[in-house]
Specification:
mainly alpha, two-stranded antiparallel ribbon, 2 strands
Length: 130
Amino acid sequence: MSFTDRVFGTSGQAMALRAQRLELIAANLANQDTPGYKARDIDFAAAMQAATAGGLRRTHARHLNANGGMGAANEQSLLYRVPSQPALDGNTVEAQREHAEFMDNAIRYQASLTILDSRIKSTQRAIRGE
């Protein structure tokens, strides 16, 4: 296990997945009036487990991941959202639900960022001997 893995843990992977989820939800919201558009989301727990399992790690955003694809989440963790009230035009985006999911994810992203910032500051203090 490398020094950065011991210090930062899975914070970087969690932030990458949260950022990818924010992009997916934003795409859902942007296509809420597109006929036939199917809302997508990430199964965060499955994606996080896949990102932290195994010994292979991506060291650059353009590298292939261990599952052969690009990006933080693999196809098994990308899901279609099931609407509670489907639209007649086949669109499955529910704006209120997407806004709620977006805000929840944004708050969790901010929490991950705060944890990472705290770890960086404590590592800096330890290096300086404070």
